[in-house]
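Revision sheet: structure tokens.
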Amino acid sequence: MSTTTSAPLPIRMLHDRVLVRPEKDGAESRTAAGLVIPVTAVGPRRLSWGNVVAAGEHVRQVSVDDRVLYDPEDKPEVELGGEFFVLLRERDVHAVSQSADDSGPTGMYL
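Predicted:
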């Protein structure tokens, strides 16, 4: 398995590229009703979450340490220091996770 280190990565991203550390999947998942689904029964995943560890100079919407949603299919992977990362273009990122505190006012008035 890979280990997480606080040392800087030996890579500098160019243009609109983003380097993402995929989040690890648990051994099994649980539905909202509480049913346990083992790994062997889970179908293919459509989108995955990951953490941005490096971003190129032309990346505007995503920054380092953001948690992003992306499509893992047919995306190149790279191994750095025994850890695997996914290489994306900024346009391949579907969403950035945002905490409730960052959202500010909702714009809804009662």
